[in-house]
Task: inverse folding
């Protein structure tokens, strides 16, 4: 199938598909005129990539996990689990930082509200 059909069937933009190829996450063959052609399995591959992006993984991390998908083995599975745990830890740290930032903003808002209250009673 050509890139437009894959785009429609997978529910992603043509630009996204080109990006996936640039990152080595998706492959196509080229016609004599240079048009991209994809196999039927590309639809599921794009769905998989979308799930990985939704989970907050970067293109680089996804590329590191692909051997587990393409050549499942105990070794690739172990490596994928370690990498996903690292990503989970990174996300947890980011969440903790966001919570601290939100708490600091809540404190500033409380100070502002208290100050506004003094302005009303003055």
Result:
């Amino acid at each position: 199938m050509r890139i437009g059909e894959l785009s429609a069937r997978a529910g992603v933009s043509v630009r996204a598909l080109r990006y996936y190829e640039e990152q080595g996450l998706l492959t196509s063959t080229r016609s004599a005129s240079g048009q991209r052609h994809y196999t039927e399995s590309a639809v599921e591959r794009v769905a998989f990539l979308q799930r990985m992006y939704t989970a907050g993984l970067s293109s680089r991390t996804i590329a590191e996990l692909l051997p587990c998908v393409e050549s499942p083995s105990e070794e690739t599975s172990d490596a994928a689990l370690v990498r996903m745990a690292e990503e989970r830890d990174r996300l947890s740290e980011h969440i903790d930082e966001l919570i601290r930032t939100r708490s600091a903003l809540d404190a500033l808002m409380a100070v502002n509200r208290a100050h506004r209250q003094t302005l009303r009673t003055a």
